[in-house]
Amino acid sequence: MYSIAINGLPDEVHQALKLRAKRHGRSMEAELMEILIRAVSPKSSVKLGDLLADISQKVQLTDDEAALLEGTLSDSEARFVSFE
Q1: What angle, 0 to 180 degrees and rounded to 10, lies between the N-to-C axes of helices 11-23 and 28-40?
Q2: Could you give the C-alpha distances from 16 to 11, 12, 29, 31, 50, in angstroms and in order?
Q3: Residue 31, Cβ neighbours under 10 Å: how many?
Q4: Which of 29, 34, 37, 26 shows the shortest CA–CA distance to 4?
Q5: Average pLDDT across the chain, whole number
Q6: How far apart are CA 55 and CA 51, in angstroms?
Q7: Is the pLDDT of residue 66 over 70?
Q8: Per-residue buried b or exposed e for 49-72, using 16+ beta carbons within 10 Å of the residue's own CB
Q9: What is d(CA 33, CA 29) in angstroms, rounded to the nearest whole number?
């Protein structure tokens, strides 16, 4: 395990870290370790289908738009999507 020294930490940052550690019931060292681990850990992956389902629930699509997304419109030509 490694040690890190941080020189020149502003007083207000030190105090905020102390308060945050106390609020989480940890030592300052443990709080810093948690912050660093979260900062460099890869984010959990999101599946595209789940993301699209979440977006469609937030955005109210017309029946035609929903059908287009699901690929169920029949007898229609493919259209380019305009984001303007």
Answers
A1: 90
A2: 9, 6, 13, 11, 37
A3: 19
A4: 29
A5: 83
A6: 6
A7: yes
A8: eeeeeeeeeeeeeeeeeeebeeee
A9: 6
- Amino acid in the structure at residue 26: R
The residue among 18, 15, 48, 47 whose CA lies nearest residue 30 is: 18
> 17 near 32, Cβ under 8 Å?
yes
pLDDT beyond 60 at 75: no
pTM score: 0.49
**What is the rounded average pLDDT of the residues 32-45?**
87
Torsion of CA 40, 44, 48, 49, to 10 degrees: -160
Q: For residues 18 and 13, what is the distance between their CA atoms, to the nearest angstrom?
A: 9
- For residues 69 and 52, the answer to whether their CB atoms sit within 8 Å is yes
